[in-house]
């Protein structure tokens, strides 16, 4: 069992942070790696990239948005409750290198995943500009943390309630125009990663994205998470989750993410849980 | 002495095909005690039993059968346990017709003694109404052994070494122990409660089972030694699904058999939404391949509501690698076979879901390296088969997760672990390997045989040195 030691409702109960006792995973985890969580006996295996780890304390942190039955079930778990199963750390860690000017682009709960990567890129001496986006000010997460993790934080909201009124790609374009950007890291909803990659390709700037396809085992055993990258089939769980953003087939990924849309609806309805 | 009355092989009752094709209950129902005792009386108690030679773990077959005939069931199961820690499993999934029963002298002139069914009977009897008395165990040696993978070979190693007094910990990547017995083999062939109770038996013997432990990620082999383990056994199976590398393979509704069966078996998607994991319930299902895993997939599809479940195989019926009994069960339940057909493409709709397979007709040419006649495409013979679910069951390769994370472990050219056949020793000191990660996909009992050999060698090492 994996006990929750801290819990925070970040945006009115739709985005939740859990700090969880998992000493063996905390000891080994590197930025960019994920875990698979299963709430209880009948639960589903849900992959989530870790937002933070604390090896001394023996804890890992995950941040998730309540989007369906399984995450609604996760939300029921309070401090002192436990996940029945957590497996990890899985996937390849982020390749961290000092390259100069780096832009980290995050959207939604992708910001949580981007945070440890941003921090690590800055720590090894990169000049990191961070662009984060949300639909609206009240659902923007981790503003202070991202400010501390980067050299320059830029905020965008779709409704203009905070920062730049518009998409992250607007601000990204400005930054790219100034030149010198060596690397872009984009983590967020698939359309965001798709359009960021499209733009950086025009500027010929290397771009890394972190994918979150549907998975079962997370150890390369089932192939559920296969994605087309540069025309080749890769398993996101072992070959990724990070890939060259210019090579990913995002349209295929989006269709595969919808594989169980009807089942997911039914599962949530019959559970009696609310989003 | 009066001449022994001839007894016919006792038939094990089964669920009728039209009923069982719609449920996940076990197909064969087991022998009654009366039938088992009668069947046991058919054994000739050969002085040099050929059946034992046919058993990869060397169970004293005439010995346990004689005890059944004498209605000494507890003694009988203990006789089996001397050599086999998983009798309820083996009684169900071993290919007995190729092993013990294939060599049975009674079988020379009629039906062989139903050794598998008897093994199953006595194991089930012990599980359901046994004394729970454990076999004797050697005094603690103070040595620690790590077993990586809780499939058939790992559990065999764990059982053997714990009886020899060593302290054994099993590391399993999934959240439940049993490996392929739990994620791969369906409930209707091997009920999961049976696997869990065999594992629980090993735990009672003193084995520790750590689930959610991915060796190579959560902990490395070298770290296991640093933590004080004296020996490591690697039995992680062949957990890398093979795909066909044809266009359309990433359409929604196309699964590897590993994924399809793991969702249904381990995650219990067949009980969705009571269990949270969903699975695509195809009405018109195609399974590619004709091994036991393909049969399991095609039969699972029927139970999940398929109106049509078809097996597409590029060779002919004679080359089908699945056990005869499995093919027979599948056909009885209504699975159709398309032989000499090779998939060349999958078609999908605008939602990216699979709608059909383009197949190419084949004919058999000259024998290939495997000795089987090579299928050769017939030009211009493409045709389309509709489907809303396709399952690729064309085998599995070695999963590199552990091997790539372990220094000093020599692999062969196909990336399987190189291990000495007589001992299971690898190139890395203190590390043994066996089962599918050494041989490639094989059977439960062959993996157990490899486990037995390695366990003996590990015991020698812990007693005398490398």
Q: Termini of chain B, distance in Å? A: 55 Å
Rounded mean pLDDT score of chain B:
93
CATH class of the largest domain in chain A: Alpha Beta
Number of strands of chain B: 16
Number of helices of chain B: 18
> How many separate domains of chain A?
3
Main pleated sheet of chain B: 5 strands, parallel
Give the number of helices of chain A.
Answer: 8
Annotated CATH topology of the largest domain in chain A: Rossmann fold
- Percent of residues of chain A in helical segments? 25-40%
Protein structure class of chain B: alpha/beta
Approximate helicity band of chain B: 25-40%
The CATH superfamily name of the largest domain in chain A is Nucleotide-binding domain of ferredoxin-NADP reductase (FNR) module
Query: Structural class, from helix and strand content of chain A?
Result: alpha/beta
The 3D shape of chain A can be described as globular
Task: Estimate the strand proportion of chain A.
Answer: 25-35%
Radius of gyration of chain B equals 23 Å
């Amino acid at each position: 069992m994996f006990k929750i030691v801290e819990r925070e409702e970040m945006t009115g109960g739709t985005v939740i942070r859990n700090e969880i006792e998992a000493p063996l995973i905390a000891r080994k985890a590197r930025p960019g790696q994920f875990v698979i969580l299963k709430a209880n006996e009948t639960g589903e295996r849900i992959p989530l990239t870790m937002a933070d780890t604390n090896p001394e304390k023996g804890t890992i942190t995950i941040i998730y948005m309540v989007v369906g039955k399984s995450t609604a079930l996760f939300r029921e778990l309070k401090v002192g409750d436990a996940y029945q199963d957590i497996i990890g750390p899985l996937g390849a860690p982020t390749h961290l290198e000092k390259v100069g000017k780096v832009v980290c682009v995050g959207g939604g709960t992708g910001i949580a995943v981007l945070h440890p990567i941003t921090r690590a890129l800055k720590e090894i001496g990169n000049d990191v500009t961070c662009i984060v986006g949300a639909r609206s000010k009240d659902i923007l997460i981790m503003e202070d943390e991202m400010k501390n993790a980067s050299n320059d934080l830029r905020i965008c909201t779709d409704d203009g309630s905070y920062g730049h009124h518009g998409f992250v790609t607007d601000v990204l374009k400005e930054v790219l125009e100034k030149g010198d950007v060596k690397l872009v890291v984009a983590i967020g909803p698939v359309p965001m990663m798709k359009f960021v990659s499209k733009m950086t390709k025009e500027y010929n700037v290397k771009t890394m994205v972190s994918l979150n396809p549907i998975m079962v085992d997370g150890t390369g055993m089932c192939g559920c998470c296969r994605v087309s990258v540069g025309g080749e089939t890769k398993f996101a769980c072992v070959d990724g989750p990070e890939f060259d953003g210019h090579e990913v087939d995002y349209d295929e990924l989006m269709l595969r993410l919808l594989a169980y849309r009807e089942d997911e609806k039914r599962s949530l309805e019959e559970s009696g849980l609310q989003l | 002495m009066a001449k022994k009355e001839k007894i016919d092989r006792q038939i094990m009752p089964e669920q009728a095909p039209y009923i069982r094709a719609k449920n996940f209950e076990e197909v064969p129902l087991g022998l009654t005690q009366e039938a088992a005792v009668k069947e046991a009386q058919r054994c000739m108690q050969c002085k040099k039993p050929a059946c034992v030679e046919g058993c990869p773990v060397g169970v004293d077959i005439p010995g346990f059968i004689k005890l059944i005939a004498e209605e000494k069931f507890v003694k009988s199961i203990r006789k089996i346990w001397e050599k086999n820690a998983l009798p309820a499993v083996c009684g169900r999934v071993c290919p007995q017709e190729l092993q013990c029963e294939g060599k049975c002298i009674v079988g020379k002139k009629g039906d062989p003694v139903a050794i598998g069914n008897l093994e199953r009977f006595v194991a089930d009897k012990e599980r359901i109404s046994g004394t729970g008395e454990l076999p004797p165990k050697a005094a603690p040696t103070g040595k620690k052994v790590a077993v990586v993978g809780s499939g058939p070979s790992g559990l065999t190693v764990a059982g053997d070494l714990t009886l020899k007094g060593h302290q054994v910990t099993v590391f399993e990547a999934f959240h439940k122990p049993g490996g392929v017995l739990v994620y791969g083999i369906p409930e209707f062939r091997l009920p999961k409660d049976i696997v869990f109770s065999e594992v629980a038996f090993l735990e009672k013997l003193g084995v520790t089972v750590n689930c959610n432990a991915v060796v190579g990620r959560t902990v490395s082999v070298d770290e296991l030694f640093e933590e004080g383990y004296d020996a490591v056994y690697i039995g992680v199976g062949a957990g890398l699904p093979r795909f066909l590398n044809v266009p359309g393979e990433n359409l929604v509704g196309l699964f590897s058999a590993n994924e399809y069966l793991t969702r249904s078996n381990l995650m219990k998607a067949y009980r969705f939404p009571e269990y949270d994991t969903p699975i695509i319930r195809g009405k018109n299902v195609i399974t590619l391949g004709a091994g036991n895993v393909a049969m399991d997939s095609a039969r699972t599809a029927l139970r999940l509501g398929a109106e049509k479940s078809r097996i597409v195989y590029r060779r002919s019926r004679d080359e089908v690698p699945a056990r005869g009994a499995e093919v027979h069960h599948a056909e009885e339940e209504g699975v159709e076979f398309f032989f000499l057909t090779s998939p060349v493409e999958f078609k999908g709709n605008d939602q990216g879901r699979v709608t059909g397979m383009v197949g190419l007709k084949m004919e058999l040419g000259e024998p290939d390296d495997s000795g089987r006649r090579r299928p050769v495409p017939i030009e211009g013979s493409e045709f389309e088969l509709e489907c809303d679910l396709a399952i690729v069951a064309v085998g599995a390769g070695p999963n590199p997760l552990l091997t790539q994370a372990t220094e000093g472990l020599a692999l062969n050219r196909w990336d399987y672990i190189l291990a000495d056949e007589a001992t299971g020793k690898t190139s890395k000191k203190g590390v043994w390997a066996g089962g599918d990660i050494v041989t490639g996909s094989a059977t439960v009992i062959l993996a157990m045989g490899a486990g037995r050999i390695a366990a003996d060698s590990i015991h020698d090492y812990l007693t005398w040195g490398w």
